[in-house]
Amino acid sequence: PMKTIHVEISGPLAEEIDALVQAGWFTSDTEITRLALIEFVHRHQFEVQEKFQRADIAWALDQHERRA
Fold this sequence. Notes:
Blueprint: H1 11-22, H2 29-67
């Protein structure tokens, strides 16, 4: 399923995005935003998973200590 996300970008980044679209590197600002999000998620996937795992472990250890 598709999800719509509204993003507001201003300043130099917005100008860079517009320039890339106008130069033909991307068909639209929607395309560049979607690709940027995909790249970000793929690049940080393991980092985020590890962060959640560490938080779960810390919670479990805290629960164990409270019961002891």
